[in-house]
Amino acid sequence: MKTYAEINEKIKQGKAVVVTAEEIIDLVKEQGYEKTAAQVDVVTTATFGPMCSSGAFLNFGHSDPPIRMGKVWLNEVMAYAGIAAVDAYLGATEPSETQGLKYGGAHVIEELVAGGKVHLKATSYGTDCYPRREIDTWIGLADINQAYLFNPRNGYQNYPVAVNSSEHTIYTYMGTLLPHLGNATYSNAGELSPLLNDPYYRTIGIGTKIFLGGGVGYVAWQGTQHHPSQNRAENGVPTSTAGTLALIGDLKQMKQEFLRAAVFERYGVSMYVGIGVPIPILDEEMLRYTAVTNYDLKTTIVDYSVPKRAKPNYGQVSYAELRSGSIEINGKKIPTAPLSSLAKARQIAAILKEWIAKGEFTITEPVASLPIESKPQSLEIREKEC
Amino acid sequence: MPKRKVVLTFPDHLTDQPLTYRLVKDYDLEINILKAKITPGEEGKLVVELANGTEESILTGINYLKQQGVHVEPLSQEIVLEETACISCGSCTAVCPSEALTIKAPEWKLDFDKEKCIVCEMCVNACPMRIIKVSF
């Protein structure tokens, strides 16, 4: 048994033993659970995948004369300005008003993080205290006040495999799906993925300090559509979409290589977000969770060609099968392809490991736990208010 | 062993002729059809890789096609990937029919084998980073 404080003391002294969620697997194989649990202090997990539910709060500062911005555009992408005078929220998936689905909020965020200037336009109805009605200028991250990523839903704990049984190619947020079960795409780092290594959110909770987009961020809240009541396998790990995280972090610390705008053909704009989460090995139970392998982690194969909320599924596969390059459905061999980058996730897990090993990054005990029971509601279409 | 990728354009009156059969039978060439659009009675297009001969026998085969009225030009388009901007997500490998684009253990870094590429252009729009282009 170790406490957060004891682990942090070791981190500060530069003596903490830190390994990644991939490395821990071999370590456990070599020396067993008991010895490894005593030896290892922190396991780093990571993911780098498309996360649509992302965006940034920006405060532009006041012009002279000042404006109470009513409508705001950044590089012709609309940001939500229905908050105080010069605050706005730029959503990652908001498409450009001039370029359509080729460019959107995520591209603006990436340009800002890369050090570029973006074109700010805003209009207003004008007030006695904010007389200006229009503004047209250029801004960079260094010129504005607060700029922080606030992503309502990131780091999905598991996600289905997408296939298409129809006769036509379909274009989805899970990529291009070829007809007649021509391919299968999946988007998860498997044994390296944060919430798959802490299935009941024992150490990942509100306030947990993390790696976000190259800087330091925090878990702010449960993510939207948080679904911990999902079916779970014997090892406790959900077998489809389950827990989610709302994340927050200073955009000014972030790096372009860990925050990348994406375009999904005929679907729209999204953003690849790099996330790294440290998991303290408080006891053998936490070690067992983090030592989970791709063979033990299963997800559900879902048919995306059925345009309904409840889509038919073809049962479960393990991440080991998905990583082998093909899966079998009804006796047919189907090639698999990842959408999230394992190479980048490994890079993030390694960076976080280094930060902790050097004593630069300590771990945080959650201020409050994430719910472990809750189901998402569906939206019913009603004829009238009732 | 020399190989050559060529684009063959067939005028409408030739689409019912067994020209590829003659290339195999009379010129002893191995023909790998990379892309085909043939409808009887309409102008047709074939992208093929010719192999299994010498540089000379391939040229003789090509000359035979030209004599028959087939328009032959080298496959000059190619797929260009901006490697430094690639995040190795693997999305493009989902649609690549020739296994030119692959991503595998242990590194899980995208690998592009130009030799296997048939320039079908499926990857161009499948790349979420939009860093795959066709160059002429």
Strand content of chain B: 25-35%
Oligomer: heterodimer
Q: Could you tell me the mean pLDDT of chain B?
A: 90
Total helical segments of chain A: 6
Please state the structural category of chain B.
Answer: alpha+beta
Q: Count the strands of chain A? A: 24
- Main beta sheet of chain B: 4 strands, antiparallel
Mean pLDDT of chain A: 97
Number of strands of chain B: 8
Major protein interface: A-B, 29 and 20 residues
Largest beta-sheet details of chain A: 10 strands, mixed
Element-level helix/strand string of chain A: HEHEEEEEEEHEEEEEEEEEEEEHEEHEEH
Structural class from helices and strands of chain A?
alpha+beta
**N- and C-termini, Cα separation of chain A:** 53 Å
Rg of chain B, Å, rounded: 17 Å
The percentage helix of chain A is 10-25%
State the helix count of chain B.
3
* Rg from Cα of chain A: 22 Å
Notes on the structure:
- The complex is a heterodimer of chains A (386) and B (136).
- In chain A, strands 1, 2, 3, 6, 11, 16, 17, 18, 19 and 20 form a ten-stranded mixed beta sheet that branches.
- With 386 residues, chain A is an alpha+beta fold.
- In chain A, helix 2 runs antiparallel to helix 4.
- The model of chain A has no long low-confidence stretch (mean pLDDT 97).
- Chain A is 16% helix and 33% strand.
- Chain A has helices at 4-12, 23-39, 105-113, 284-290, 319-323, 342-357; strands at 18-20, 42-50, 55-59, 71-74, 77-79, 87-91, 95-96, 100-104, 118-123, 134-139, 147-154, 161-163, 170-172, 175-177, 184-186, 209-212, 215-222, 245-250, 259-264, 268-280, 298-303, 313-318, 326-329, 332-338.
- Chain B is α+β, with helices and mostly antiparallel strands and 136 residues long.
- Helix content of chain B is 20%, strand content 30%.
- Chain B is built from three helices and eight strands; from the N terminus they run βαββαββββαβ.
- Chain B has helices at 19-27, 55-67, 122-126, and strands spanning 4-10, 30-37, 44-51, 71-74, 78-81, 101-103, 110-112, 132-135.
- Chain B is elongated.
- Chain B starts with a strand and ends with a strand.
- The model of chain B has no long low-confidence stretch (mean pLDDT 90).
- The chains are: A alpha+beta (386), B alpha+beta (136).
- Chain A binds chain B through residues 48-50, 102, 175-178, 183, 185, 260, 262-265, 270, 272, 323, 325, 335, 337-344, 346, and chain B through 87-91, 93-95, 103-105, 107-109, 122, 125-126, 128-130.
